[in-house]
Amino acid sequence: MKQQTQHTTSLPDGWRWEKLGIACHVQSGGTPSSGIAKYYGGDIPWAITEDLTAAGQTISQTKQTITEAGLEDSGAKIFPPNTVLFAIYGASIGRSSINTVPLATNQAILGIVPKNPKELDYLFLYFILSASVKELLKESRTGAQPNLNAQIVKNLLIPLPPTLEEQRSIAERISTRLAEAERIRHAAERQYEAAKALAGAIVREALPEELPDGWRWEKLGDHITSTQSGVASGDKSRTKGVIHLRMNNISRRGLMDTEQLWRIPASEKILKDYSLTDGDILFNNTNSPELVGKTCLFTPNTKEPYLFSNHLTRIRTKESLEPRYLAYFINDLWEQRYFEKTCESWVNQAAIRFEASVFPILIPLPPTLEEQRSIAERISTRLAEAERVRHAAERQYEAAKALAGAIVREAFPFHHDISEQR
Question: How many domains does the chain contain in total?
Answer without folding.
Answer: 2
